[in-house]
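Input chain follows. Return structure tokens only.
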Amino acid sequence: MEETTHSPDSSSPSKDVAPGEHSLPHADPHTARAPTLTHHNLHTLNPPHFVNSIATGAHYAGALSPPAHEHNAHGEHGHRSQSMTGNDPAMLELYKDVLQDIEDLFCARLSPELFQRRWSQNCEYEDPLTKAHGYLECAAQFFGLAKLCSSSKRISCRVVSATLKPNKLVLAQTQEYTIRLFGTKKTVASFVLVTLDEDYKITKMVDQWDGNELPTRWGALYLRRFAAVLIRWFVTVPKSTSNS
């Protein structure tokens, strides 16, 4: 009996496609899909590919909505959230003062007026070591950092995303700290997730070192709260000379 062979062609798919699915073209298995950033409640981002991308300068806007042609605060769609990539000129201009204040915070260029201008009274601040609640506790974390470090220098910073309604920023930054007591330098790459109110005052800031989830298990959450309170006890927050 003569054996018949069939050569594959474009009209004969190699695999069955289930209902509701779409066949995809062949792709290089070594080519990774670009990571995306999803806006939820400012929880952790997926770190492995994301952190490694900082050095390459890659942009991750796959999950961001396209920018609107106009920002109509009172129009038919004025209530809808707007998401833009961090390199959008209009968005960067809108957040220019906020971004400058955030840089001053991490570079220890501190003043009572900066905190009064940029932080809300019921704000929150979190990093792997502390979990601060309220204006005074949050301010104490940064004034304490200025006492611990003789210098804090920004190596790089990129706006990963910026949104309106809700007002949120995600920054990828690398900071170099010089420890005052030993003179040693420590470089920290992190994602800074910032939530702001309608007056562009910070209501929550989360500093995720290396993009990792903040520790909460095995009593870590309570230790971070205790550390924030302890710093508040030992660090004096200067009062503003303004009565406003």
